[in-house]
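hey can u check if this looks right to u? its 227 residues, i copy pasted from the old doc so theres a chance i mangled smth
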Amino acid sequence: MANHHPNEELLMAYSASSLPISQALCVSTHLEFCEQCRSHTQKLNSIGGLLLESLAPKAGSSKLKGQVMALLDEPRQTQAARPCKTAEVASNTFLIPRPLRQFMSDGYDSLAWGWTAPDIYTSEICRDDNGAQVSLLRINPGGDVGKHSHTGDEYTVILSGSFSDEDGIYLAGDFLIRDKHQQHRPVASKDCACICLTSVEAPIQFTGFFRRWLNPLICKSYQPQSL
């Protein structure tokens, strides 16, 4: 069970479908782990539905009605399920939260992981229209990310394993937000690798003496673009 959750404002924005895709992906992934937030989001959705019902209906154009009816008349196309190569692949895919399965079909190991720093690997999965970079972060067992600050908001969801920083220990399902006023130094547990979903609006900046030389490389690799 997750111990760290999105705040009320974020869940309300998610329920209203007003979040950027990058943030919505992080929230929806957290909901896969957290019954508490799923239940609360369902209540927010119900409230939103009641508010919509209270609005006076507005007649739509005949053109719009025709387009909707045409879509309803079209036969629904289904995509044939691709058979798994092995039972292990099926197991790995099953463990991936549903919102992320569109980006990987054969488990985390099928991703192209790039070296970022000692014991740290990343795999970008998409970019948002607002420039946010959405990636998976893998920290080797006992790996130290290094102390760093943020030049934009960073959203993180722990997918497997765990890490700790100055503020506590974070387990699978936990949801964190770090802004440009915060610094931290994540360290993975020694028993297994830690895999996280991250959405960053701007590159992080290492503040430690031995890793500052990585900052130009990170900034160079971070080239915001639209989806």
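The radius of gyration is 20 Å.
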